[in-house]
Design brief:
InterPro entries: CheC, CheC-like_sf, CheZ_family_phosphatases. The protein has about 200 residues and is of the alpha+beta class. It has 6 helices and 7 strands. Helix content is about 45%, strand content about 30%.
């Protein structure tokens, strides 16, 4: 059976990108209110990668990264995780909270979890608005580890439902400061077809 993510065509990916941009807009508004400063966000690309490529996107298996993991439950389900390289996480915290230091305190880890929570919630809200589906996110969990170890932990937790992931590349802007991040979605069986059925888009 062909992996459903590998069956997505350019039009279907463009639909997901549009939903991602709407979600990013909601997240930017929420973060701007929370931090009392203007935050812009953009989704330059939505694409499908193999699980082996996730390591490369994160900078290699030994690259230390920050990962925020959540479960997507309801009519459409799957696993999601936001991944930032260590320097990107530090830059994001500097932009949002004025962070200046080495290592992350409990407060900084909570701030990163809240960012992941806001981003996931905003994407899910956009999905819900478009699909009219009942979807919600679990409480987030954070991990700071090498990319390979983080990915293995995620896969052990969610199970091997597929060999691919949907990647929503996300850019955070505050003034001239840019932070790149990646938001990964690993759908449960049947969820990809359910998304497009709910959107009224053919998915053969």
């Amino acid at each position: 059976m062909v992996d459903p993510l590998l069956r997505l065509n350019d039009f279907q990916l463009s639909v997901l990108k549009e939903i991602g941009n709407i979600g990013a807009g909601h997240a930017a508004t929420s973060l701007s209110v929370l931090m009392q400063r203007e935050i812009d966000m953009n989704v330059p690309r939505v694409h499908v990668v193999s699980l082996q490529e996730i390591d490369e996107i994160m900078g290699g298996a030994e690259q230390v990264v920050v990962g925020v993991f959540l479960r997507m439950e309801g009519d459409i389900s799957g696993s999601m995780f936001l991944v930032l390289k260590l320097e990107s996480a530090e830059m994001l915290l500097k932009v949002l909270t004025g962070f200046e230091g080495n290592g992350f305190t409990e407060f900084e880890q909570s701030a990163l979890m809240e960012i992941g929570n806001i981003l996931a919630g905003s994407y899910l809200s956009a999905f819900s608005d478009f699909t009219k589906a009942n979807i919600h996110a679990s409480v987030p969990a954070i991990s700071i580890d090498m990319a390979g170890a983080l990915l293995n932990a995620v896969l052990m937790h969610v199970g091997m439902y597929s060999d691919t992931a949907l990647v929503i590349d996300t850019e955070f802007w505050q003034g001239n400061e840019l932070v790149d991040s990646h938001f990964f979605f690993l759908p449960d069986p049947g969820s990809v077809a359910a998304i497009f059925k709910a959107l009224g888009v053919d998915f053969a």
